[in-house]
């Protein structure tokens, strides 16, 4: 971060901390169902994108590794699964570089930060809603990211015929 960004961040952290200290003395109502829903979707949407990219890249790259390197070297499917380790490394580098784009897209879609007080943000209901959003979001994304399997039926049949 640049010095101006650091100072802005520090100023906001101090403001957030002073609000939190002031609210410690007040009893805060738990978040409303609408706020919890907002927290859920705020956390779910980026994870749908991440799960989609994660699974789609894993399927495409894994299939290509098995069809190219596996066939050329004449290795078994089990040895081809060892190549999946390299696939995971490739996937990690791709997904970590794409994470910023997924989050930027989510913010462009109008996904605003939920309006919660610091005490409400730390309540168990809010944390549960956030974790459920992430878990369900990545699950939906992974299911949607399985779409490349629709196109791989022919290659796998050709591979079986070659054996």
Describe this structure in words.
The protein has 163 residues and is an all-alpha fold. It has one domain. It is 80% helix and 0% strand. The protein has helices spanning 3-24, 33-73, 77-108, 118-121, 124-144, 153-162. The chain is elongated, with a radius of gyration of 22 Å. It is a multi-pass membrane protein. This is TMM65 protein. The chain crosses the membrane at residues 56-76, 88-111, 131-153. It comes from Syrrhaptes paradoxus (Pallas's sandgrouse).
Task: Characterize this entry briefly.
Pfam families: TMEM65. By secondary structure, the protein is mostly helical.
Fold blueprint:
Layout: H1 3-24, H2 33-73, H3 77-108, H4 118-121, H5 124-144, H6 153-162
Helix pairs in contact: 2-3, 2-5
InterPro entries: TMEM65 (IPR019537)
Membrane topology: Multi-pass membrane protein
Transmembrane segments: 56-76, 88-111, 131-153
